[in-house]
Amino acid sequence: MAGTIRENQPAAEREARASGWRRFVPTLLPAGLLILALILPARMFSRGQSADVVGLGPAAWPGAMLLALAVLSAIWVARDLWALRRPGGQPLLTPVVEEGPYAMGKAVAGLVMIVVYGWLLSVIGFALASALFIAGWCVFGGVRNPLVLVPVTLIGTVALLWLFMGLALMPLPRGQGVFDGFSIWLLQTTGIY
Amino acid sequence: MAAFELLGGGFSAAFQLWPFLTIVTGLLVGVVAGALPGISFVNAMAMALPFTYVMSPTQSMLFLGGIYVGGVFGGSISAIMINVPGTPASLPATWDGYAMTKRGEVKRALAIAVTASATGGLVSALVLAFLSAPFATFALKFSQPEFFAATVLGLVSVIAIAKDRPLVTLVSLVLGIVVGTVGVDPLYGQARFSFGIPEMESGIRFVVVMIGLFAIGEVVDLLATNRDLRPKTQGGRQIGAKLADILGVKGAILRGTGIGCLIGMIPGAGATPGAVIAYGVEKQVSTRGAEFGTGVEAGLAAPEAAKNATTGAAMVPLLTLGIPGSAATAIMLAAMMLHGVNPGPLLFIMDPSMVYTIFAAMIIANVLMIGAGLGVAQVFSTLMRTPPAILAAFIIVLSVIGAYGVRNNIFDVWVCLAFGVLGWGMKRIGFPSAPLVLGVILGPLAERYFLTSLANSQQDWTVFVTRPISGTILALAGVFVLWSLWPGIIGRLARRRERAA
Amino acid sequence: MTNRTPIAATSRPAAGRAAPDRPHPRSRAVPAASRAGLGVLAAAAVSLGMGAGTADAQDYPDRPIEMVVTFGPGGGADLMGRTMARLLEEPLGVSIPVSNVAGASGNAGLTRLRTNPADGYTIGTLISLTVASWASGLGDNAPEDFQVISVVQSSPSFLFVPANGPHQSAEALFEYAKSNPVTVATSGYGTQDDVTLKLLANAGITMENVPFQAPAERYASPIGGHTMAIYEEPGDVAQFIEAGQLVPVVVFSEERHPAFPDVPTSAELGIDISGLDNYRSVAVPAGVPEDRVAILEDAVAQAVSTEEWQEFCESTYTCIEPVTGEAAQAMVGDFRDLIAEQLSQ
Predict the structure, then answer these.
(1) In terms of CB atoms within 10 Å, which of A28, B220, B254, B459 comes out highest?
(2) Which residues have C-beta within 8 Å of that of residue A83, sequence separation ≥ 6?
(3) Does residue A113 share a domain with residue A41?
(4) DSSP secondary-structure letter at C244?
(5) What is the pLDDT of residues B270-319, one digit of tens each?
(6) What are B38-74's pLDDT values in tens digits?
(7) Is C259 helix (H, G, I), strand (E, B) or coil?
(8) CA dihedral (C331, C333, C338, C340) positive or negative
(9) Is the sign of the CA dihedral B393, B395, B400, B404 positive or negative?
(10) Distance, CA of B429 to CA of A93 (rounded, Å)
């Protein structure tokens, strides 16, 4: 799947250039799904199964669905290969056409920031991680005036803390070690604990 | 006529200052929570549960009922405005509702959505008030084979919704069903696809998948395209809704309401399948069915009416039988039981005033919802004027809170973010994500209804077709598939003939 | 049955009365915070420097204690956890927010309980259903990962039949089962329910196990006439018993249940099945300092002795003398071994 989402030119241009092996890139998705559907049944259980089960057993439904996925993906691959045998043929999956320019680098950086945020949550706690993330995203998104950035970050984070940990009593992660201590201090200072 | 008298008493009880304020507060909390991307109405109701400790049993039901009614609609505000469904039931609102917004008709879309939702909700509240006894008797006739058949109808509707690529939609749907099988199986207590990770045994919840696929993908696109979220205008002024717009979709609203009332009674199903089936049916019935997905009013109105029509219907089995069919009604049951009140047939005999106050409150809440919905939508459109980067940052943080809040589990956040990355990629290559989410919702239901049906009939596979209700629904599903695929088959044959000629 | 006052009638006024004289749960946090008062910064500095959990026992608890309910809102574990949390707030003097961490038969919540710091600021529900799931290999939790504060609820299970069904006694049902298929709604394969049905089958009474994952659907199935009986503890189907929709026919216990003196035990019918009672306990992760465990144990004892708790446990038919210490710990370990042994047969 990684191969199909790597490209960066507008779709119209790509279509024109799509020739040779590149025309087959979108077909990698159903091919990947087909392989997945064939591998997964063997990996369904990570523990031994008791031999006598009443009825169909826990493997029947996912097994049937994986079989369906395999068959459908196979049809898809076959259909794509059949269509692509001629130069003008189109694969079943055609990338969306963006209305304006699409900054692929920015999008990937944004995704990385989101994933890092998810990881930081459990390490440094919700309050710190969210403040860092909000500030980082704003700077990256073009909001650089400190008179906007600082209040938005601080007031936003405290408001979220107050609303969800204070009012809704959600046990959002406080972080580990020193950060746990800091989170508790922060929550006590803001009157939430 | 006793029902009218009792309902009259219910109205006068509900129109007292505090009960009324409770309904309004609940409604506003629900609409706002529903409209926030990530926070679903089930989340909001669970968070509100501790507040009901200090209320009287009736008041706590008014509060939760208000959140329920408001929250089921609220999800459509963000679906229509920014293409991020606030709750899974609002998925269909992103198809035609957001398309209208892109045309600069956001106000019109919102007005149609809120009117349709309120109508659906109102009718179903009336059903609750006047027909709950016969409906409850009818609901008890339903058993696992019928639930399975109804779930199949939901799955089939997903295929019917597909515009032109049934194969791709089907692959996405089945992939969703496979994702839904992760975790402990419903009958045997065995963990599947956990790959030795204990957290995986808890399974993957559809809300978490939905937040990831929709909210995160949309926000990253926002960053990459420098798009503006400010509501678009046409020729300097926004297009509002006229009465004629509402009247134009009255058929769609009626059909949606009917479907919602029926689906709402089925335990486990709830608002999302109701909305999806209504959309699928409307696409077939409507003369503009082929244009669905490009901003057709009927395609917005039908699912909106259906999802709110499930609210009253879902409370029928809760109040009359003491059996909650969905997560939302289970929270209401918890609130009542924490006060020592057991819903069920005895409640009607022992405390009819409480029951009828709840009925009255549901009716009032649905009427008030038009105002609350439009008011909150106005506030949200004002919020859209803040720089997109700030808005996007908060959408992500709210999504993370929402994913965490489903089960207070950090692992769900990681699953949500993983699906966020996946969803963004799927969007880039044009692989549809809505069928996947619906597969995650409906797949586990279909599995347990299927297996329990077999266990209850000595593994007799014919049970699904020999039981009259389930057989009828399955036949209906079959017809539905043929009906929706027919134009495609005809079209293909015609094209082939043209090419040959 | 007839001389018992219906639940809803007795407890509603009580709940109404409880509301005004019991402060809002949240308001508890305020005295706790103000007690810390000027010392907030100092206390923070201490906890920053040394990490949480090293403060003196006198200070415990000085911030909210999280109650992890290992199932979603609305079930028996949730009601127990929420009622207990509410009643613990007074003796402990801090607010006790409830968080539902559902998943994997309660193991997801236990994992959260186990992996949170063992400082007494996280308590959770540990119930027999989850313990039984360990026997079938679910989760990575073990009895020694937890310290059971107190087992506060326990109830034997019954077989109930619908009031409009053809067999209104256990004898009739068992006799019918000898030559015809009888369907029993249960919570799943590999659970206590399954073990009981297996033991019945060993005694010559074979019944079809029909697992329903969703409790609501399980209760609806015999009432709607889709299954012939249901295996359940009376508290979870109290409203259906009160309404006369479900009739208890046999209790799987050594003695008859005081609330149902007319219902025979299985031993009286010649099949001795007992020791599979559903119990619910409050637990902390292993390693919580002893003085804190003592404070919690004391608080739970106070909570259980309140009138409100008594009303709650009576309405759910689960009143017992709380089991604490080693005995409570043994209940968990022994139960897992018992289920594992039965399942492996």
Answers:
(1) B220
(2) A89, A90, A91, A92
(3) no
(4) T
(5) 788 899 999 988 988 888 888 888 889 999 999 999 999 999 998 988 88
(6) 888 888 998 898 888 888 999 999 999 999 999 999 9
(7) coil
(8) positive
(9) positive
(10) 7
Give the nearest partner residue to C73 out of B331, B345, B448, using CB atoms: B331
Say if A43 falls within a structural domain: yes
Q: Within an 8 Å CB–CB cutoff, is residue B47 touching chain A? A: yes
Q: Are residues A184 and A109 in the same domain?
A: yes
With a CB cutoff of 8 Å and minimum separation 6, the contacts of A102 are A8, A10, B224, B225
Say how far apart CA C230 and CA C265 lie, in whole Å. 16
Give percent of chain B above pLDDT 70: 95
A113 and A75 part of one domain: no
Q: Is C248 helix (H, G, I), strand (E, B) or coil?
A: strand
**Share of residues in chain B with pLDDT > 90 (%):** 41
Residue with tokens 């198809």, as numbered in its chain? B95
Q: Which of C282, C338, C258 is nearest to C1 (CA)?
A: C258
Residues A68, A9 within the same domain:
yes
Domain that residue A125 falls in:
104-189
Q: In the CATH hierarchy, which fold is given to the domain comprising C158-269?
A: D-Maltodextrin-Binding Protein; domain 2 (3.40.190)
> Are A109 and A80 contained in the same domain?
no
| Residues A159 and A118 grouped into a single domain | yes
**Phi and psi at residue A190, in whole multiples of 5°?**
-85, 0
Average pLDDT, chain B: 87
What single letter denotes the amino acid at residue A98? E
- Give me the phi and psi of C184, to 5 degrees please: -125, 125
Touching A (3+ Cβ pairs <8 A), the chains are B, C
Q: How far is CA B91 from CA B101, B211, B304, B438, C231, in A?
A: 15, 11, 10, 9, 39
- Residue spans of the domains in chain C: they are 55-155+277-344, 158-269
Residue C261 confidence (pLDDT) above 90: yes
* C55-155+277-344 belongs to CATH 3.40.190.150: yes
What region does C85 belong to: left with phi over 0, alpha with psi -120 to 50, or beta? alpha
Buried b (16+ CB within 10 A) or exposed e, B348-379: bebbeebbbbbbbbbbbbbebbbebbbebbee
C-alpha closest to that of B192 among B437, B421, B443, B458:
B443
Domain segments of chain B as ranges: 2-49+57-500
Say whether both A116 and A158 belong to one domain: yes
- For B2, the enclosing helix (H) or strand (E) is helix B2-14
**Residue B369 — very low, low, confident or very high, per pLDDT cuts 50/70/90?**
very high
Answer yes or no: do A65 and B443 touch at CB < 8 A.
Answer: yes
Contacts of B410 in chain A (CB under 8 A): 121-122, 173
Q: Residue C272 region, left (φ>0) first, then alpha (ψ -120 to 50), else beta?
A: beta
Shortest distance, CA B306 to any CA of chain A (angstroms): 29
Conformation bin of residue A44: beta by default, left when phi > 0, alpha when psi is -120 to 50: alpha
A chain contacts of residue C36, beta-carbon cutoff 8 Å: 188
Contacts 24+ apart (CB under 8 A), C2-9: C4/C259, C6/B346, C6/B350, C6/C242, C7/B340, C7/B342, C7/C238, C7/C239, C7/C242, C7/C315, C8/B340, C8/B341, C8/B342, C8/B346, C8/B347, C8/B350, C8/B351, C8/C242, C9/B350
Measured between CA atoms, how close is A63 to chain C, in angstroms?
20
pLDDT in tens, C162-210: 998 899 999 999 999 988 989 999 988 888 888 899 899 998 899 999 9
* Strand bridging mode C146-155 / C158-162: unpaired
The whole-angstrom separation of Cα B336 and Cα C12 is: 10
Residue B231's pLDDT band (boundaries 50, 70, 90)?
low
Q: What is the pTM of this model?
A: 0.85
Distances (CA, A) of C268 to A34, B43, C232, C242, C264: 59, 48, 19, 25, 6
Q: Which residues of C touch B345 (CB under 8 A)?
A: 243, 245
Question: Does residue C166 or residue A15 have the better pLDDT?
Answer: C166
